[in-house]
Amino acid sequence: MLGTIIGDIVGSVYEFKNHRAKDFSPLFHAQARYTDDTVCTVAVADALVSGLDPQQKLQQWCRRYADNGGWGQKFALWIYEDPPQPYGSWGNGAAMRIAPVGMLAETEEQAIEWSDTVTNITHNHPDAIISARAVALAIHWARLKVPASQIAWRVQERFGYDMSRTPDQIRPTYVRTEKAADSVPQAMVCALQASSFEDALRNAVSIGGDSDTIAAIAGGIAEALYGLPDDIAAQGWSYLPPDMKVVLVDFYSQVSL
């Protein structure tokens, strides 16, 4: 989960000013910050560890950090709806916030059930539901030590995503989109074809597009695959306010593997 947050922070400065190369330096740009992607991920984690309604938790956290900005137009309205209703989104926001499910789920069935629960409250379009399931399962499998190549094969077989292209092949023609079907597979490739956690983030930034979300998705998978280097984890941790840190501490205390 911290891997998702770090990906969000690292990618934040490149979302609308893409850097289509892996050589950016430093890893954490001076203007880097956490975005709405982090707020939503923390909200999902808080719901899972507290056993409370994810819809309520998502609204609670997003209202608390409303000034952070970055919300999609329909999601921004959803935050204040009473009662809130799903709005058929096909966007990548469901996959972006799903890492806590993959980290905590003990079985594939549980990963899918929890994924659907926290996705359908907003993103109840089939493309968004599938994308969240794919990311949650990739993280779950990675935590079970399934090799990255095997995870890629399973994702392609189960969800029909093209996992064969490399970041180098994606980069030249990739166009910014928030559509789950056209951004989540690319983000997954960036993690599954990386050599380390940092390499996954560099892949994610380098392909361009919706960089904070691409890197957040890649970061969540890469954490489960490769672990978090202590220095990168510490630097990412330093960006977070106290209330988010409390959730993360509680969350990792419940991660069993």
Descriptive key words:
single chain; 257 residues; ADP-ribosylglycohydrolase fold; 15 helices
Characterization of the model:
The chain is 60% helix and 0% strand. The chain has 257 residues and is an all-alpha fold. The two termini are 14 Å apart.
Q: In total, how many domains does the architecture comprise? A: 1
Query: What value does the Rg take, in angstroms?
Result: 16 Å
> The CATH topology is what?
ADP-ribosylglycohydrolase fold
Q: Could you tell me the mean pLDDT?
A: 97
List the helices and strands in order.
Answer: HHHHHHHHHHHHHHH
Poorly predicted runs: none
Strand content: under 5%
Mind telling me the CATH class? Answer: Mainly Alpha
What's the total helix number?
15
CATH hierarchy: architecture: Orthogonal Bundle
Task: Give the CA-based shape.
Answer: globular
Which class of secondary structure composition applies to the elements? Answer: mainly alpha
CATH homologous superfamily grouping: ADP-ribosylation/Crystallin J1
Q: Quick one: how many beta strands?
A: 0
How far apart lie the N and C ends?
14 Å
Major pleated sheet: none
* Portion of residues within helices: 55-70%
Offer a quick outline of the entry:
The protein has 257 residues and is mostly helical. Helices cover 60% and strands 0% of the residues. It contains 15 helices and no strands.
Topology record:
Layout: H1 2-11, H2 36-50, H3 54-64, H4 73-78, H5 93-96, H6 99-104, H7 108-119, H8 126-143, H9 148-159, H10 167-170, H11 184-192, H12 197-206, H13 211-226, H14 230-237, H15 242-253
Helix pairs in contact: 1-12, 1-13, 1-14, 2-3, 2-15, 7-8, 8-9, 8-13, 9-11, 11-12, 11-13, 12-13
